[in-house]
Fold this sequence. Notes:
alpha+beta, Arc Repressor Mutant, subunit A, 5 helices, 3 strands
Amino acid sequence: MKDKIEQAYLLVQKERELPQSELWKKLGVSSREGSRVAREMENRGLVDRTRELHGGRWTYILVSKRVGRGVSSIEDIFCLQCPYEARCSYDSSKYLIDCIYLEEWSLEQYARHHQPAERHEEQVVV
């Protein structure tokens, strides 16, 4: 069933939104098996399931919760530009653990992506 969940998730992620009735047809499984796969994906937090009327029949619409990020999410990672990158390796993670450059970059990225929303207060004219 693990392979079916992975296949199903890839289908839902590709479509962003997919009726459950279409999912099991695309997977080539019974509606019962398709329902199990969809429930398991929902339990794992991979999709949202909402009941909707689709093609004159009630079905669940599966919506992917996670969006693939692609290469753009790592293209500005510091390690790719680091002059000390050659020192880091799978065998010696010492440099990664102690790397102040990576730490600074990580904190900078975190701050950039987790800035609190600006509060827009209306000015009251008296």
